[in-house]
Structure formats: structure tokens, C-alpha cells
Design the sequence.
């Protein structure tokens, strides 16, 4: 019987897992969900909540601790606890100055302009810190799945995240050893969790009040495709501010008892903060609760009763700020409250009854609250992950190469042939030539990595192309083709076009690197990030456009019949613009072209997605759906 068990255990390794996680990487809390038995479910390891506070504690020695335990350390050791790292993603030091003033840790800028936070004498980038959180989320998720190691994932980001912030999120996932299938907007994920993509048409307002941020996003759905019409909000308004109101009450009464100096102690402040949050949460369920500040080490135990009504009166100005943002978002979307068909509440702080009531009154419609507001984004990410995993492999985004691949050229430089994050399978060809007269052979050195010089990259192999007829330098035309198949196997071929002489090698680059190596190499890449960031983004965008062009070209003919003429025309035009943009390296132009192209592909994507969904639904009884 033993070997049968072993077989079962080995199953995930031999048959690639068809599962992918949906991950909500939040400012305050992070969470993973997965598609199971026809619906998304959040993962509860060992029956406990899978919600991971996005908090890291750095003990003087040993490994950093992430999550609940880390948050609990905030009272005893506030200088070595990091909160709200999401705010720093993809940001420079200058952007963050006001924020940093109130934090108990040092921040600096690396030589290349990336922000770094210093804890226990070590410097960390936001990507590295977010990676620690993702690793914890991943670890809990795998435990909840009985030890299965699921590394593919969909990660959500706020709709207002720019390209750099999205890229930083991808990089954090890479550092955590995860493969990002797609980055999805949080409001879109929340709408997917509620199945709103099933509507033919409609406008959705997603109201997201988290721990430290607030945003409201107006989306329109047409044929299962979501489009963001507007987004508004305040990146410094969230549940924490409601806590602060109660903390203010506590401080006003504690001051005369303990003196301002003790009150200013970071540990004391944390204790007040935690007591205030617990009281706020209790007031969600009960009309009356106790506000407590307890610091056992200092023998402090203070309490006071507070009624919900008193709390709500304090909160009213904060709630009104969220409503002004709703007005703003609607006016930007050129819609009236009555034109919103669905309102979705997201974020733990929308559990507060006063928030729910006010939102309902503003939109004149009952918001969706059937799902837990702090789980709904992760659930939606799991829906998206399932679509991506279950859909036709050649049509939807799949694996990407973790590092760039190229060949060494004259002077030890690297000519990158396949850029990192390229979707596989993929293929690219580059032309080379001889550099001395009558040279009859060429040496190829294949390397992997982000650095500009071959000796800084990882060597994957060498091969030679011999038998080139003698001719003057620069006359030989050698095409070098890199091909990565769906399993990640790289084949490199070289062909002299005049004579047809060719040589081929097969290399397995994707599985040879340990996570630590990928991390180190990415870090080295970061060390040069600022100077060539734009270049890299431009290169990445070209690849992305290339992928989209290929996908569009291979699907447009099949989809043409199901699309109206205008959509086809828009798509062809946007594709042409995108191709043109790829001939230059202007980042802004590439971004614009990519965005417009992406928008123009939506009707086709929706059509194809519908076909897939229809196939999946075929044969099921109506009652099942
Ligand atoms: P984020 O998206 O910022 O990661 P969440 O959606 O997890 O955050 O929301 C966290 C916020 O929700 C915190 O301020 C927390 O106090 C608040 N919260 C959680 N549960 C409740 C509750 N029952 N009542 C009121 N606020 C709550
Ligand atoms: Mg959130």
C-alpha cells in the first residue's frame, strides 16, 4: 500500500497543479482564496482564519515574523515592527517623506534611488518586505491545501496603482517564489466575487474602506468585461482613523492619570491603538462596548464604556469624506447615483453599521454585503485565477520566464533575446555576424539574468557554429533563434543564412535556479534598477504588446463573426498603433498604446471567455448554476 500513498503525494509534482491562488495583498490584511467545487473559498489553515495582518516583526536575531504574532509585538517592540508596507510599493523616498516622519524606523534611498527601510541594522526594499508577507500567505494557503505547493497566483492591486506600483507587486511575488498569472484590480475582483460579470450590462460602484485607505471605483460591465470609469478616494483614510477617534478619547482621559511623557511612549500608543480597534469592532455588533487600554508590563489597566451612538457622532465627518469621494467618482464617470445598478462593499471597515447605512442612503440602493467584506477581493482573485487556469492555454496568459535570456556578444556584453516576464511558449530571433575577416566559426555563450555583462549573469551553456565560408567581417548573416516551449525548455539554434549551416542546443533553464538564486539575481537587478527602469519597462511593454498581438492575430479570425464591425476596426487600429509604438522606445507612448490596445481587445476577450464559459457550463443542469 505504501507506494500508492507515495504516488498520491507525488501527484502535484508530476502532473502540474491546475490550481492557482487568488491573493489579496492588502495594506492592513492579506488573504488567499482558491476555486473549489465550483466556487471560490478562502483558505483556513488548520481551521483558523487565513487572514494575515500585513505586519512584520524583526526580532534582534532570527527570522522575521509575519502576521498576527508580529502585530502583537507592536506593543512591546514598536521600533522593529513594520506596518502598511503597501504604501511604499513602487515609490521613491521623496514621495514618502510626509509619511515617514511619523514612522518609528529609518528610511533611506539606495544608490539607485529605490526606497529602503532600515530595521535591526538591515535595509529592506518594499518589494522584499511584501515578499515576506506573500510567503506567509502562500505558506498558510499550502497548509490549508494539505501540503500541496501552489505557486501560480493572481494578485490584486488598487485600481489607482500605476505601472511602477504594479511592477513592484509582481517583483515582490517573484521574490516570494510565486508566479503571477495576472495582476487584477481590487474592485474588479470584488465584482467578480459577486458574479456581476454575468450581467449583460450595468454600472457598479465598489466602495472599499480598508484599514488605512479608502477608494471608490465606478466600473461598467458590458458582455462580461469590466471597464474602470473612474476612481476616487483618499489613501489616508481608513478604519485606522476611526480607531484614532477612540484613541483620542482614551488619551484625553489617560493624560492626567499618567502624564504626557508616558503617553508618548510608542508601546503605550500601540496599546491605545489596539484597545481602540477592539472597541470599534465590538461596536459593530453591540450598541455599547468597553474601551480598554491594558499594558501588563506597566500594570496599566484602564477602561471606559462607550455607546455606539456616541462613537457614530464622532465618526460622522469621516463617513462624510467617503461620501464626497463617491460624489467625485460619480461625477467623473458622468453618472447619477440612480444610474448605479450594483453597489459592492469591500474592506473590513465597511462592516460598521454607520458606513453601510450612509452608503445605502447615498446610492439609494442596498449594497452587496452577502460576502465578508474583508474576503471578497481574495475570493474574486480566485475566480479570475480559475478562469485563467481553466481557459484555453494558448489564449490566456500563462507562465512567464523569470529572468531574461540572451547571448554574450563582443566585449562581454549581453544581448537579451527573450526578456524576463515573457509569456511562454515564446520565440525570438536576433541577427549576428562575424567580427573578423574570414572567420569560419562563431562561439555562442547563452546566459540568463538581468545584468548587462555576461559574467554577472548565469551561464547556461555554450555551443559553436562551424563551417561558415570565409568572407569579410560583418558579411556573414547568422540568425540566432531562442525558443522556449510550454514546459520551459529552451532550445537555441543558430543558422548561417547564406550556407544554411546550422547548430542547435537544448537547455533546461527554468528549473535549475533555486529560489535564493532568483532572489539574488533579481536583487542585483534592483541594484541597477533606477537607471534602466524606464528601459526595462519599455522592453517589458513591447513584450506584452507582442504577446497581445500574437494572441489577437491568432484569435481574431475565429472571433470576427461574433463581433460588430466597429469593435473589429478599433482593435485592428489599436493593434497597428501598438506595433508602431514598439518600433520606438518611448515609455509613455508604449504605455498609452498598450492601454488602448488592451481596451480594444476587451470585446474579443469577452467573446472568447464566453465561449469558454459556455463550454464549461454545457451539460450541467440549470439548477447547478
Ligand atoms: P486592507 O484592505 O487595508 O488590507 P481590510 O479590508 O482587512 O484592510 O480592513 C481592515 C480594517 O477593517 C481595519 O481597520 C479593521 O479594524 C476594520 N475592521 C475589521 N473588522 C471590523 C468590524 N467588525 N467592524 C469595524 N471595523 C472592522
Ligand atoms: Mg483591501
Sequence:
Amino acid at each position: 500500500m505504501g507506494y500508492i500513498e507515495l504516488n498520491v503525494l507525488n501527484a502535484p509534482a508530476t502532473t502540474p497543479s491546475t490550481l492557482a491562488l487568488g491573493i489579496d495583498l492588502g495594506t492592513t490584511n492579506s488573504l488567499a482564496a482558491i476555486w473549489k467545487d465550483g466556487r471560490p473559498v478562502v483558505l483556513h489553515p488548520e481551521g483558523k482564519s487565513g487572514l494575515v495582518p500585513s505586519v512584520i516583526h524583526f526580532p534582534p536575531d532570527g527570522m522575521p515574523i509575519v502576521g498576527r504574532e508580529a502585530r502583537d509585538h507592536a506593543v512591546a517592540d514598536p521600533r522593529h515592527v513594520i506596518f502598511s508596507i503597501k504604501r511604499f510599493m513602487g515609490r521613491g523616498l521623496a514621495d514618502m517623506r510626509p509619511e515617514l516622519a511619523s514612522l518609528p524606523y529609518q528610511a533611506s534611498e539606495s544608490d539607485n534611488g529605490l526606497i529602503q527601510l532600515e530595521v535591526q541594522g538591515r535595509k529592506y526594499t518594499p518589494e522584499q518586505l511584501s515578499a515576506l508577507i506573500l510567503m506567509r500567505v502562500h505558506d498558510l494557503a499550502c497548509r490549508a491545501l494539505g501540503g500541496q505547493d501552489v505557486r501560480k497566483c493572481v494578485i490584486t492591486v488598487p485600481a489607482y496603482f500605476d505601472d511602477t506600483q504594479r511592477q513592484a507587486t509582481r517583483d515582490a511575488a517573484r521574490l516570494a517564489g510565486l508566479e503571477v498569472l495576472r495582476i487584477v484590480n481590487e474592485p474588479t475582483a470584488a465584482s467578480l466575487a459577486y458574479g456581476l460579470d454575468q450581467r449583460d450590462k450595468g454600472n457598479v460602484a465598489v466602495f472599499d474602506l480598508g484599514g488605512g485607505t479608502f477608494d471608490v471605483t465606478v466600473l461598467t460591465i458590458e458582455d462580461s468585461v469590466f471597464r474602470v470609469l473612474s476612481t476616487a478616494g483618499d489613501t489616508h483614510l481608513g478604519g485606522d482613523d476611526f480607531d484614532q477617534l477612540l484613541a483620542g478619547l482614551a488619551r484625553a482621559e489617560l493624560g492626567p492619570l499618567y502624564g504626557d511623557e508616558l503617553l508618548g511612549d510608542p508601546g503605550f500608543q500601540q496599546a491605545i491603538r489596539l484597545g481602540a480597534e477592539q472597541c470599534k469592532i465590538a461596536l459593530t455588533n453591540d450598541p455599547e462596548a468597553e474601551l480598554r487600554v491594558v499594558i501588563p508590563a506597566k500594570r496599566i489597566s484602564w477602561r471606559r464604556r462607550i455607546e455606539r451612538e456616541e462613537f457614530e457622532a464622532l465618526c460622522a465627518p469621516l463617513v462624510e469624506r467617503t461620501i464626497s469621494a463617491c460624489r467625485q467618482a460619480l461625477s467623473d464617470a458622468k453618472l447619477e447615483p440612480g444610474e448605479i445598478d450594483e453597489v459592492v462593499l469591500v474592506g473590513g471597515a465597511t462592516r460598521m453599521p454607520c458606513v453601510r447605512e450612509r452608503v445605502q442612503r447615498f446610492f439609494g440602493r442596498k449594497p452587496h454585503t452577502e460576502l465578508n467584506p474583508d474576503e471578497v477581493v481574495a475570493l474574486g482573485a480566485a475566480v479570475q485565477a480559475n478562469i485563467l487556469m481553466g481557459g484555453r492555454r494558448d489564449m490566456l496568459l500563462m507562465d512567464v520566464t523569470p529572468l531574461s535570456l540572451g547571448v554574450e556578444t563582443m566585449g562581454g556584453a549581453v544581448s537579451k533575446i527573450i526578456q524576463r516576464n515573457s509569456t511562454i511558449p515564446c520565440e525570438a530571433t536576433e541577427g549576428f555576424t562575424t567580427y573578423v575577416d574570414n572567420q569560419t566559426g562563431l562561439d555562442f555563450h547563452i546566459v540568463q539574468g538581468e545584468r548587462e555583462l555576461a559574467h554577472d549573469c548565469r551561464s547556461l551553456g555554450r555551443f559553436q557554429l562551424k563551417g561558415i565560408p570565409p568572407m569579410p567581417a560583418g558579411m556573414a548573416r547568422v540568425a540566432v533563434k531562442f525558443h522556449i516551449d510550454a514546459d520551459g525548455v529552451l532550445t537555441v539554434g543558430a543558422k548561417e543564412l547564406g550556407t544554411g549551416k546550422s547548430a542547435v542546443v537544448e537547455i533546461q533553464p527554468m528549473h535549475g535556479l533555486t529560489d535564493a538564486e532568483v532572489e539574488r539575481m533579481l536583487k542585483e537587478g534592483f541594484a541597477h534598477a533606477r537607471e534602466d527602469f524606464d528601459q526595462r519597462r519599455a522592453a517589458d511593454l513591447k513584450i506584452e504588446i507582442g504577446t497581445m498581438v500574437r494572441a489577437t492575430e491568432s484569435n481574431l479570425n475565429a472571433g470576427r463573426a461574433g463581433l460588430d464591425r466597429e469593435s473589429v476596426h478599433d482593435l485592428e487600429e489599436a493593434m497597428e498603433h501598438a506595433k508602431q509604438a514598439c518600433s520606438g522606445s518611448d515609455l509613455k507612448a508604449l504605455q498609452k498604446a498598450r492601454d488602448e490596445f488592451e481596451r480594444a481587445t476587451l470585446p474579443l476577450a469577452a467573446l472568447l471567455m464566453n465561449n469558454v464559459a459556455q463550454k464549461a457550463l454545457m451539460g450541467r443542469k440549470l439548477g447547478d448554476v
Summary: Residues 528-617 form a domain with the Substrate Binding Domain Of Dnak; Chain:A; Domain 2 fold (CATH 1.20.1270.10). The two ends are 39 Å apart (CA to CA).
